[in-house]
Amino acid sequence: MARVELTSGDQPCELKTGSRTDEAAPHVVEFKQVSKTYDPGTSKAFTAIKDVTFAVEDKPKIGEFIGILGPSGCGKSTVLRLIAGLGPQHPATTGEVLVNGAPVVAPGPDRGFVFQDYTNFPHRTVLENVAFGLECAHVPEKERLERAAEWVLKVGLDPKKDGHKFPHQLSGGMNQRVAIARSLIMHPKIILMDEPFGALDPGTRQRMQDLLVSLWRELEATVFFITHDIPEAVYLGDRVFVFSQSPGTIVHQLQVMPPDRPAREMQMEPTFLESVRHVRYLLEELERKD
Ligand SMILES: Nc1ncnc2c1ncn2[C@@H]1O[C@H](COP(=O)(O)OP(=O)(O)OP(=O)(O)O)[C@@H](O)[C@H]1O
Ligand SMILES: [Mg+2]
Question: What pTM does this model have?
Answer without folding.
Answer: 0.91
